[in-house]
Amino acid sequence: xxxxxxxxxxxxxxxxxxxxxxxxxxxxxxxxxxxxxxxxxxxxxxxxxxxxxxxxxxxxxxxxxxxxxxxxxxxxxxxxxxxxxxxxxxxxxxxxxxxxxxxxxxxxxxxxxxxxxxxxxxxxxxxxxxxxxxxxxxxxxxxxxxxxxxxxxxxxxxxxxxxxxxxxxxxxxxxxxxxxxxxxxxxxxxxxxxxxxxxxxxxxxxxxxxxxxxxxxxxxxxxxxxxxxxxxxxxxxxxxxxxxxxxxxxxxxxxxxxxxxxxxxxxxxxxxxxxxxxxxxxxxxxxxxxxxxxxxxxxxxxxxxxxxxxxxxxxxxxxxxxxxxxxxxxxxxxxxxxxxxxxxxxxxxxxxxxxxxxxxxxxxxxxxxxxxxxxxxxxxxxxxxxxxxxxxxxxxxxxxxxxxxxxxxxxxxxxxxxxxxxxxxxxxxxxxx
Length: 433
Ligand SMILES: Nc1nc2c(c(=O)[nH]1)N[C@H]1C(S)=C(S)[C@@H](COP(=O)(O)OP(=O)(O)OC[C@H]3O[C@@H](n4cnc5c(N)ncnc54)[C@H](O)[C@@H]3O)O[C@H]1N2
Ligand code: MOO
Ligand SMILES: [Mg+2]
What we know:
Blueprint: H1 8-12, H2 14-22, H3 29-37, E1 45-49, E2 62-63, E3 73-74, E4 78-81, E5 95-103, E6 117-121, E7 133-136, E8 140-145, E9 148-153, E10 163-164, E11 175-177, H4 185-193, E12 198-202, E13 206-212, E14 216-217, E15 228-229, H5 231-243, E16 246-253, H6 257-270, E17 273-277, H7 287-293, E18 298-301, E19 306-307, E20 313-317, E21 320-325, H8 329-347, E22 357-362, E23 373-383, E24 386-391, E25 408-412, E26 424-429
Parallel strand pairs: 5-6, 13-16, 13-17, 14-15, 17-21, 19-23, 22-24
Antiparallel strand pairs: 1-12, 2-11, 3-10, 4-6, 4-7, 5-9, 8-9, 18-20, 20-21, 22-26, 23-24, 23-25, 25-26
Helix pairs in contact: 3-8, 5-8
This protein binds ligand LQZAQKY5, molybdate ion and magnesium ion.
């Protein structure tokens, strides 16, 4: 359908429809986030092998079944002895102790140490009872006499040296990892250490992604006048993956209410979360805006006092959330980072659901004034110990190319004055690969 062959019945009610489109009540970004959070349902859980758990979110709290280390551990290759045996040692007075055992890693000592004795011991091996210090091999010399081995030491050593006590890192019963922790290399090391070889994690939220726009070509199609390739769907899929969700690319539909309705309803029925791009503003073919207002879904908001993405729309149907993001790539990107990413992470109980907020100095003047909060894409650098955030030179909602150069969103509060370089600003750090 083109603007020129619009049916008459539609034209007749255009004025009424327009009123519904225009009179949107903006809510703050924080209020939009709060409303969404009220509808987040936790994802189901599943068991995965530890080697496949990277990037997943723990659905169990893990406590330590034993202390770590669980035996007194030597930190050096050397001799386990009693520190008091060296009280008389000095550079001109070598103390000789009899070597009564040799303890490699993985073995238990065969004897306890008595005064006058030493056990040769390796790094990581179990320190024998009685010994309270391990003297490094380099500080010793040995001699063998009548098949008995002696170790000589010329220095005093303080008790406890080179012995890691039981439970130094972790006491039995300590909380190791909280539910909702994202499993990275450090977490895997902890879980492996304590024998957790299968982990209960949240299922990745299954997120449907589709775009609306008669102008959209798929990525493999040649360009045509008036048409563009559908970059938002793939961009969103990557953002969703990075947030911990599993994207499902459903393609694009033309700006047709029925096609969009079918796509949206099918997506809502099949997936945990639905994210669309395009068609949420006030244009004649902005079908997602119309759909959400139609009452078929419960609208949570259709205007947020932010730029880009002021027309970002949120809705819920049968307990499932729908995000109708703006078609403009910049607004689509920001809407996903501010609203979709936290939702995915909240579904997996993440304590780090929202983008981390830092304080920085504005790196160059920012002259656009607005009554809405702006989330300006930018990049951070540290200069003379100060975090500086440089706004992208092209940051309009419809600009695509500078998204890739950004590692933060600079928060410019509503203002009537241009903001000079050096002004303290909040920035939201983007998780850059
Ligand atoms: N009269 C008004 N016009 C507009 C307003 C307004 O308040 N009054 N708001 C503007 C703002 S702000 C934004 S943001 C956009 C929102 O547009 P829509 O969400 O309705 O998106 P579309 O109209 O479908 O497309 C906008 C733009 O984005 C391109 N696009 C769409 N989908 C994709 C995609 N999948 N990949 C790449 N690019 C895409 C599309 O071709 C358009 O250029 O409305 C303003 N207008
Ligand atoms: O949604 Mo538009 O991006 O407010 O600029
Ligand atoms: Mg539009």
